[in-house]
Amino acid sequence: MNIHEYQGKAVLKSFGAPVPRGFPAFTTEEAIDAAAKLGGSVWAVKSQIHAGGRGKGKFKETTAGEKGGVRIAFKPEDVGLFASQMLGNTLVTLQTGAAGRVVKRIYIEEGVKIAKEFYLSALVDREQGRVAFVASEAGGMNIEEVAHDTPEKITTVGIDSLTGPTRADCEKIASAFGVSGAIAGQVLELIPKLYDAFTKSDMSLLEINPLIVTEDNKILCGDAKVSFDSNAAFRHKEWADLRDIGEEDEREIEASKYDLSYIALDGEIGCLVNGAGLAMATMDIIKLFGAEPANFLDVGGGADKAKVEAAFKIILADPKVKGILVNIFGGIARCDVIAEGVIAAVKAVGLEVPLVVRLEGTNVNEGKAIIRNSGLNVIAADDLEDAARKIVAAVKG
């Protein structure tokens, strides 16, 4: 679950991390009022969407101006102007895709005199089985280029969950920034606070880009990209107030109602699979044979008929889908139950695209018989390679 920058900063502030003052705004009038409450003579006007690269993004509408989704205003009237240009218009960044995202809220933040910008993030390092901090002295909007061109400028520090961040860990991060003295001291104070925010809030990602050093040598979190681990939602009732459904794909919202793991992609072959690893392998082999997956969809090990029917309907709701591959390995989930769900879904919504079904595992013969006797135009497959070849061939005509 993703949240907006201003919400992420509020979370960090609650754990004692330093952030610039700011107020969210949903209208031009609220933006002007926010600037007045902040005072000063410089304000940052920031589009709030669930995507990075806002500063370099471009609006589709010509009325939105040419300065991207993050702008600096030096007059109160410019705050109002930028707000009116951003709100209700579509911002396109490298992370949104060509469709972009409609800006429905903005963040007005006090101006900060920046001396240096660093990159800092915390994530779950699955290879080490611990939280890790990633730090670089090369902060700002081009961290992807830094990772590609000069990976030696990026330092990763794994944190022992039994001790939390040690002084040595924090010193490694300060060294990665190339700072010393009072600024290094602030880094040593900041890292434990961010670690607490990450672990106690059940985050899966925290990205601060940039982490700012001001001209008066103060550390500030200049941005906050926060993703929560949705598996922990049961113990975070407050997340309901942070969720912005308008930023989520309608199909992903529908999938969450049935506890389905669904992520929309840009390809043409819909995938219905049980198990995240098998789903990834299915997507990979589709690409291997020259096509693109339209989604990641894991119905889970305990999928029942209702879940499968819901999953099928969600896939078919994507107008880009030109074919569907069902790839089921029945362990806990029985192949006959999956087959019944597929048949029910096809009968409920109709089927105008090719469908390839590969079943293996518990009650596989019963499942294949259900598919075979359904009277539907379904292409059977013997294994994953056979299934991928058949669906790609069918989609490509």
From TrEMBL:
Q: Which GO terms describe its cellular component?
A: cytosol; succinate-CoA ligase complex
Question: What does the record give as the function of this protein?
Answer: Succinyl-CoA synthetase functions in the citric acid cycle (TCA), coupling the hydrolysis of succinyl-CoA to the synthesis of either ATP or GTP and thus represents the only step of substrate-level phosphorylation in the TCA. The beta subunit provides nucleotide specificity of the enzyme and binds the substrate succinate, while the binding sites for coenzyme A and phosphate are found in the alpha subunit.
Q: Could you say which cofactors this protein requires?
A: Mg(2+)
Which PROSITE patterns does this one have?
ATP_GRASP (PS50975), SUCCINYL_COA_LIG_3 (PS01217)
EC annotation from Swiss-Prot or TrEMBL:
6.2.1.5
For binding ATP, which residues are annotated in this chain's numbering?
A: 46, 53-55, 109, 112, 117
Q: What is this protein called?
A: Succinate--CoA ligase [ADP-forming] subunit beta
Q: Which NCBIfam families match?
A: PRK00696.1, sucCoAbeta
Q: Which UniProt keywords apply?
A: ATP-binding, Ligase, Magnesium, Metal-binding, Nucleotide-binding, Tricarboxylic acid cycle
Q: Name one GO molecular function term.
A: ATP binding
Q: How is the cofactor bound?
A: Binds 1 Mg(2+) ion per subunit.
In what residue span(s) does the ATP-grasp domain sit? 9-241
